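During the first year of the project, the team set up a workflow for recording each protein of interest as an amino acid sequence followed immediately by a discrete structure-token representation. This format lets reviewers and collaborators read both layers of information side by side without switching files. As required by the reporting guidelines, we include two representative entries from the current panel. The first entry is reproduced here exactly as it appears in our internal archive.
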Amino acid sequence: MTEFTQLVEERRSASNFLADMPITKNELNDILSLVKLGPSAFNLQHKKYITCK
């Protein structure tokens, strides 16, 4: 989680994901709380989050 937090705080993009690496509901909540801090395209702030089990 520390690496993800640093990633968001430094405004870097991530393009490599591990499909078979599950996360807990608490981790997901922490991630979504951090993601909303990131900039959006043209600062429009339109966001839609989709999660899968």
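The second entry, processed by the same pipeline in the following quarter, appears below.
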Amino acid sequence: MKLVFKKILFLLLLTLILISPSLVFAQFSSRVMTSKLDAVAQQSGYSASTDETTLVTTLGSIVNILLSLLGIIFVALTIYAGFNWMTAQGNEEKVKESKATLRTAVIGLVITLSSFAIWKFIESRL
């Protein structure tokens, strides 16, 4: 009975943790701040919003999507390698294979994060 109670309590706490960011209502202050900045831009003679899509924004969207997908793939590989390592049950071959997968996943994640940083630098200059 205690084990069931602990599991239910754990699930409730996990749910509360996952839902808590939506309770902050940070989006409201962001919208208020954006509307104030738009008003200042209009008073200064600048256009508050642009409807045109430039090459930089299109490339930025494509690169961000691709890098996000790569990040998801590398996280999935890390979880897969960890699962294989935990279920190896002393089998040295499976442990070596899991270590190699984990190593390549971490290297790939570092490359992806580096390319993301480089792209953000290039995008800010364009």
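For the second entry, the following points were noted during internal review. Residues 1-45 form one domain. The mean pLDDT is 82. Both points are flagged for discussion at the upcoming steering committee meeting.
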